[in-house]
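Ticket #4471: complex job returned nothing on first submit. Input attached below:
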Amino acid sequence: MVKTAAIITIGDELLSGDVVNTNATWIAKRLYEGGVSIRLIATVGDEIEDISRLIHFCRDLVEWIFVTGGLGPTHDDITREAIAYATGRKLTQNEEAQALLIPRFGDGKYTLKLTELPEGSEVIDNPVGAAPGFIVDNIVVLPGVPAEMEAMFDLIVDRFTGKAPDVRWLTLPKYEVEVADILSEASRLFPDVKIGSYPQWGEKLKIRLSSMNPKRLDEVLEYFRKEGLDV
Amino acid sequence: MVKTAAIITIGDELLSGDVVNTNATWIAKRLYEGGVSIRLIATVGDEIEDISRLIHFCRDLVEWIFVTGGLGPTHDDITREAIAYATGRKLTQNEEAQALLIPRFGDGKYTLKLTELPEGSEVIDNPVGAAPGFIVDNIVVLPGVPAEMEAMFDLIVDRFTGKAPDVRWLTLPKYEVEVADILSEASRLFPDVKIGSYPQWGEKLKIRLSSMNPKRLDEVLEYFRKEGLDV
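Support reply: We reran it on our side without changes. The output follows.
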């Protein structure tokens, strides 16, 4: 399975705050549940140069990159071109994509725009809409329409994921500073358990424990109790 | 005013899909309404090296970087340290921050953790909670708790923003391919108008026009009508 991934969502509408980025959260959750560690989630506009730079940045950081958005037929859909540019590949008519789309949508110029993919791409069929997705090098590219993206992600998710880490959430009626010492010590004693601390409004603190080894979570809880926390 | 900005939100809980990134959307909207073009929104975990790399990436891309999250007192709050590392500055006790916090919270070690900022930082007071924000070089750093972040952003927003672009949304009962030619031609004829096309579920298309010059939006609408669109 894949150990590390980044998620890139493309679209000016996400940068202006008009649309909340639910796609990134959805993919992050699915990958995380499958044991993949997400190192970066990023949104960039419909600009070839910006997308390409971000792809290069992610390639130095993670094993796999998941990209959504900008695969439609209009002038502002430039993701295919940007990925080709970023990977140093030509855009060419993909025969597999043509075989999927032309029988359904004809061979008009917009269909042919959708089937023009970076050379050597593996095609991901779109069971819900038109634009096919593709995989090239270590980049998985899916449309931005959530129903399409989700259906297509489900077709390929098994290739990337494995066992999920165990997660426990605790809520404590405490200010963060009251338990900071205990958390810090627990973090030192249990290096294989990730301990997150998220202050909520007022005297309420959420603690998140995660580990690939569920027994260790029990040990952390035992340690918390020993330190006087009611968990 | 500032022309380009990036927004970085820090926190493992955002990468696992447990929490939707509302802070980034909120800041993006406020900056966008003030005429600032957002080039990148990114989320990264509580890792000094990842945060530092992302800061360097953003510095090549935009004028100002807005960062939220990881300013609390616990072991996983490493944003102060990461920004110091990324900017090549020392972390030192900030006297202005001490003067704000010690009268309210005492001089315990957790208060002193909050007041340890990159050398030369300008302090942003936190009227809602404890952790102060700061500005260093071209980086604005705010807490991740939304109520704190929002109140503090309001204290400084005027420094960065100016006139907003005019925006119009249209909804057309069309598939995207039916109007793609018209949109593409309009985009060529009106280069100072940004035209976004967002397919919705079924036969419904949202079009977003934006420009610093409202007259040009009227001209685009006139062009659409001439081409037979009911707008």
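Chain B has two domains: 4-159, 166-226. Closing as resolved unless it happens again.
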